[in-house]
Specification:
It contains 14 helices and 12 strands. It is α+β, with helices and mostly antiparallel strands and 415 residues long.
Length: 415
């Protein structure tokens, strides 16, 4: 069960099939059942309600589930004249399916008075329950040890994604998924803390990258990964990771990362500072690598700092400054997928950089908006500037269902 190998996601080690008459169940990633070395969930493949019945009983860990609860969960809003009879038929059909593999497997579903349960005595392992056991054990550790790493590796190998994704809208699955994800995040963050204490940044990087394959937008994992890369002097990788999560958050959620994650950018920038550098070296380093014409495009965190600096200097310089929000507006009932929107926003970015001055500042503010800082621009020139941007935007391709709207606010200074 090694997590700390050169593989990003280690493959499961094959075990010799056990002839003990018990089943092994996999609920993370997809629903699977194994019996004496054979995968047997195929018999339930076309029986959706049967799979849901099995999942519901298994998630209750062998505890009896009342017939009324089973009916409400399995049939939901369906109207059936004889729900108890329908449930008995479903249970009988499910037992018959298992009996086709081995007559003994009919006993996987146990009848109780007014309830049914799953036979845990005939169940060798359920990955969800094993993960829960490992998490309890991991949280008891106060130091990084070989056994801690072994258990962490097993836990992360078993937790391969969403719980029963084909049933993700069922209430009984959603509740279990939320609990499992929160416990997983707690265990991984505890591991990161112990690895930080032992100064093992390489293992933090591996741990975070594996965890992010399962929960890709968890801030704490991204922050720990970036900080570990900074400490390892891998600043370019740290910046690439920051840009990746910033762009992904904007693309899929239409917003910026959390304030804490945005602050990481300043840590990346500070990481490469060296006090012994002389002023000429620093000036050379601060210069842009290539001469770039047009407006300056920056991350939102940097834009905020520049904005605040401009506001503080207005009273002293008495130079006008405007904040402009330029928004891509879709016509009513016109839906655009994220990739199409990305292409539109990239085209708008090109128009902004080509039609604004070198000293103007731009940033992607939301999924459909750019924020612009215009310094030393008279009020009467704003409309001309926006018209120039629009002309550049529409010059190559006509986006008929798309309009560019803008709002402007004076930050002060001489108009």
């Amino acid at each position: 069960m090694e997590l700390f190998t050169n593989e990003t996601k280690p493959a499961a080690k094959r075990r010799k099939p056990l002839q003990d008459g018990k089943v092994t169940m996999k609920l993370f990633g997809q629903f699977e059942m194994d019996y004496e070395g054979r995968q047997i969930d195929g018999i339930l493949k076309k029986a959706k309600k049967t799979r849901r019945l099995v999942a519901l009983l298994v998630l209750n860990k062998g505890n009896p589930v009342g017939v009324h609860q089973l009916y409400e969960q399995l049939w939901d809003e369906e109207s059936i004249e004889n729900p108890e009879g329908a449930l008995k038929t479903l249970v009988s059909r499910t037992r018959s399916m298992f009996g086709q593999i081995d007559p003994a497997l009919r006993d996987l579903i146990v009848a109780h008075v007014g309830a049914y349960g799953w036979n845990m005595a005939m169940t060798r392992e359920v990955d969800l329950f094993r993960v829960e056991e490992l998490i309890v054990d991991l949280l008891d550790y106060s130091a990084d040890t070989d056994m801690f790493r072994k258990n962490l590796g097993e836990m992360m190998m078993l937790y391969t994604g969403k719980l029963l994704p084909e049933m993700s809208t069922d209430e009984f699955v959603m509740l279990s998924e939320i609990r499992a994800e929160e416990r997983y995040k707690k265990a991984v963050n505890h591991a990161i803390h112990l690895f930080e204490s032992s100064g093992n940044d390489e293992i933090i990087v591996r741990t975070c990258r594996v965890a992010l394959t399962c929960i890709p937008y968890e801030d704490s994992f991204h922050m720990a990964l970036i900080r570990a890369l900074i400490r390892m002097n891998r600043r370019s990788e740290a910046m690439a990771q920051y840009r990746y999560i910033t762009e992904a958050t904007m693309r899929y959620f239409g917003t910026h990362p959390s304030e804490q994650l945005q602050d990481i950018l300043h840590e990346i920038i500070r990481a490469d500072e060296q006090l012994e550098k002389d002023v000429d070296m620093i000036a050379q380093e601060l210069m842009e690598e290539n001469a770039i014409s047009g407006a300056y495009l920056c991350e939102y965190a940097i834009f905020k700092d520049i904005y605040r600096l401009q506001v503080r200097s207005l009273d002293r310089t008495n130079i006008s400054c405007y904040l402009v929000i330029l928004k891509v507006s879709m016509q009513k009932n016109d839906k655009v997928n994220p990739m199409e929107l990305d292409n539109v926003m990239r085209r708008l970015q090109e128009s902004l950089q080509a039609n604004l001055r070198v000293g103007d500042i731009i940033t992607r503010y939301t999924a459909t908006q750019y924020a612009i800082l215009l310094r030393g621009v008279p009020a009467q020139s704003l409309k001309n500037i926006i018209a120039r941007i629009r002309l550049g935007f529409y010059s190559e391709t006509i986006y008929e269902p798309i309009e560019l709207e803008y709002m402007a606010r004076s930050l002060g200074g001489k108009e």
